[in-house]
Phenylalanine-4-hydroxylase (Sphingobium fontiphilum), 290 residues
Amino acid sequence: MFRMGEMQDMVAKAADWTVPQDWDAYSAADHATWDALFARQAAMLRGRVVPEFLDGLDMLRMDRPGIPRFEALNERLMKATGWRVVAAPGLVPDEIFFDHLAHRRFVAGRFIRRPDQIDYLEEPDVFHDIFGHVPLLAHRVFADYMQAYGLGGLRAARLGAIDHLARLYWYTVEFGLIAGAGGLKLYGAGIVSSHAESLFALDDPSPNRIGFDLRRVMRTRYRINDFQQSYFVIDSFDDLLRQTQDADLGPLYAALEGEADIAPDALTPDDRLIHRGTQAHARRAASAED
Ligand SMILES: [Fe+2]
């Protein structure tokens, strides 16, 4: 049991779960890890990522060496779209997270991975959260989408539909593709912060690439410990925002309760199929586990 004073202290901290970034605590090795990750991704993403992402990197001056100071980043980001970044010690509860988004605050991890984790780590670190997510928060329409998602999350929590809404975040904000002038482009933060998935999501024949449909996405389960078996392709950020804002989510959630989930690799007759995946990667991974 907690004594009353401790309880109140915990509640006070839990109010928004934010902590100072404590930038001075980063070591030279931490900054070097950021620089190595940044140089590798910035070079490989040219021509592969949606141009608005590169515009965001430039506008926010994220190419300066070292882990960005959130305060400096926020000055530019606030001017662009009214968003800012706040630090949290780890994952925050869903409703706290949604509330931050609804108020145009993006919750970022402040630790950075160890050098031996440069290729992969499961937990989001400051490189994933800042490099992956923040450039598009400087884009007016995507910024509005993220806020709309937060507001939708607060509503979904009241309706007990967080799992369905989480799939929307997963297949757009984290692992989304977009149809560009010269073919498909990347925009999801989980892809653009990962060297291997930046290649896989665009070039590999294994995964399905399917035109985005809100209801289809909300029915689709996802994988958290390997590359995706299906990626969903939006036509534009405007279209994504419109589809999300126009949807009458209350009745949609009620309807989804009665519908079966779709497996991560499955196709349905209504899919707007852009590429039928071979699923060779997932089969290789499964047989390696046997
Ligand atoms: Fe993320």
About this structure: The longest strand covers residues 84-88. Residues 16-289 form a domain with the Phenylalanine Hydroxylase fold (CATH 1.10.800.10). The chain has one domain: 16-289.
